Amino acid sequence: MKIQGKEDTIIAIATPPGVGAIAVIRLSGPQSFDAVDTVFSGKIKIKDAKPHTIHYGNIIQGVAIVDDVLVSVFRAPNSYTGEDSIEISTHGSPLIVQKIISLVVNSSAVRLAEPGEFTKRAFLNGKMDLTQAEAVADLINSRTTISLRGFRNQLDGLLSAKVKFLRKKLIDISSYIELELDFAEEDIEFVKRTQIFEGIDEILSEIEILLSSYSFGKVIRDGINVAIVGEPNVGKSSLLNYLLKESRAIVSDIPGTTRDTIREEISIDGFLFRLYDTAGLRISEEIIEKEGVERSREAVRKADLVLFVGDTNVGFSDAIRKELLELNPTVKTVTVLNKIDLNINIALSGDFNISVFRGTGINELVEGIKKIALQEGAYTEKTAIVTNIRHYGCLSKAKENLLNAKKTTISKLSGEFLASDLRLAESALAEIIGEVTPEEILNNIFSKFCIGK
Ligand SMILES: Nc1nc2c(ncn2[C@@H]2O[C@H](COP(=O)(O)OP(=O)(O)OP(=O)(O)O)[C@@H](O)[C@H]2O)c(=O)[nH]1
Ligand SMILES: [Mg+2]
C-alpha cells in the first residue's frame, strides 16, 4: 500500500470526450488543491475549503477568464481515490477542457493521468479490492441491464466477501498444520487428518460452486451466442428476421439462399443474444458454399445455444444431430419445427413448434431461450458470480492445490508438503482480491480502463 502524500498529482477529463452540457475534470493527489488555486479565482482559496463543498468561480489565464466553473473538494481519505481530490465542472466544450488541463499541467507539478489510474489509486489506498476495481470498468462498459446488475453485484463485494471467507477458512486449517510443524519433534497431531480433510472438502465444494457460476458469468459479460442451424430452406433466415423485427437476411424458396453467416444482436429482458443465421450444415463441393458451411460450423463451435431448425417437410436429420454433437459436445440444443401452418406430417414435433408465417409459437420459443439463458434462476442478486476469466483462473488454481493437499495427506507425506499446498491455494485466492497480485497483472488490468476512470 502506498503512503498518502508520496504520489504524484494527476489530472484527466472524467466525462466522455466531445461536446456536452457539462464536462468534468478530475484531479487526485497531494498537490490537487494548490494546483487548482494557481488557475482558479473564487471567493476563497481551494486549499482553505472545507471537504465536500462546492465552489463557484473562474478559471483564469492572466486576466482572461477561460470559463466559469464549479469546483468540488474532497479531502483524503474521503474520496474515490482516498487522496485529496478535485472535480472541476466546466461548460462541456472540448476546447475549454483542453485549455484548463494544459493550464493546470503547465502551472503546477501535475501530470496527465494514465488509463485507470484513479481507480488504481483507489485500489492501492484500500478503498476497494481488485475484484471491485475490475467491476468498475465492467460496469461502465455494460450494455445490458443484466450485466449491469451482475457487475453491480461484484462492485458491492459479493464475490470478494465469498473469497475472503474461504481464504479465512483456509488460513485456519493451515495454522494448525504450521503449529504442528513447529512441534515436529514431538509428533503431535493438533487436529485429526479427517478433520483437515473435511475442512478442505468444504472449501472445495464452495470453490466448485463459484467455478460453475462462470457459465452464467459469461452470459452476464458477453451475452449468449445463439446459432441457428438446420437444412436448407427450413426458414432459418425467416426466423432471424422475425426475431429482429426487420428483414435483415434474404429469404427465398431457393435452398441455399444464405451463404454467409449473418450476426445480429437482440436484447430480451436485459439479456444480450447474439444470433447467427447460418448457411446450414450440408455437404457441398461448390467453393463458396463450402466456405459458408465452414462458417456455420464455426458458429456452432462458439455457440452457447443452438436452435436446430427443421420444417414439416424434412424434420430433424440424424446427420445434423450427429454433426452438432461432434462440433460442440456440450452445447445446449433445442429443436424448432417450423412451418406448422402447412399442416403436413403432423406426427413430427420439435421442442418448439412454430410458424414464422403466422407468428405461432414464437413467444414460447423466446420464453424458452430466456429460461435457458437464466439457467432456471440458479443465480439471484445475492449470489456471488464469477464473471471474470482471471478470477476463474485463480479459483481453478486454488482448487488444484487443494486437491493436491488431499493427495498429500492420503499418501502420508510430511506436514510440510501439506502446508505448502495449502499456502499455494491460499495465495491463489488472495490473488483474486488483489492481495498478492503481481504488478504486471495489476498494470494489465488498469491499462484496459479509460482515461479519467
Ligand atoms: N409455409 C411456411 N413457409 C415458410 C415459413 N417460414 C419460412 N417459410 C418459407 O420457407 C422458404 C425458406 O425460408 P428461408 O428463411 O430462406 O429458409 P433458410 O432456412 O434460411 O434457407 P437457406 O438460407 O436456403 O438455408 C421461404 O420461401 C420462406 O418464405 C413458415 O412458417 N411457413
Ligand atoms: Mg437462410
Can you walk me through this structure?
The protein has helices at residues 32-37, 94-107, 117-124, 130-141, 145-155, 158-182, 193-212, 214-222, 236-244, 287-301, 318-327, 362-374, 389-410, 415-433, 439-447; strands spanning 9-13, 22-28, 40-42, 53-61, 64-74, 85-91, 110-112, 224-230, 262-268, 271-277, 305-311, 332-338, 352-353. It is α/β, with parallel strands linked by helices and 453 residues long. Strand 1 (9-13) and strand 2 (22-28) form a beta hairpin. Helix 4 (130-141) packs antiparallel against helix 5 (145-155) and helix 13 (389-410) runs antiparallel to helix 14 (415-433). The model is unreliable at 1-5 (pLDDT under 50). It binds guanosine-5'-triphosphate and magnesium ion (MG). The site of magnesium ion has 6 residues, from helix 9.
List keywords for this structure.
single chain; binds magnesium ion; 453 residues; alpha/beta; binds guanosine-5'-triphosphate; 15 helices; flat
Secondary structure layout plus pairing:
Elements: E1 9-13, E2 22-28, H1 32-37, E3 40-42, E4 53-61, E5 64-74, E6 85-91, H2 94-107, E7 110-112, H3 117-124, H4 130-141, H5 145-155, H6 158-182, H7 193-212, H8 214-222, E8 224-230, H9 236-244, E9 262-268, E10 271-277, H10 287-301, E11 305-311, H11 318-327, E12 332-338, E13 352-353, H12 362-374, H13 389-410, H14 415-433, H15 439-447
Parallel strand pairs: 1-7, 8-10, 8-11, 11-12, 12-13
Antiparallel strand pairs: 1-2, 2-6, 3-4, 4-5, 5-6, 9-10
This protein binds guanosine-5'-triphosphate (GTP) and magnesium ion.
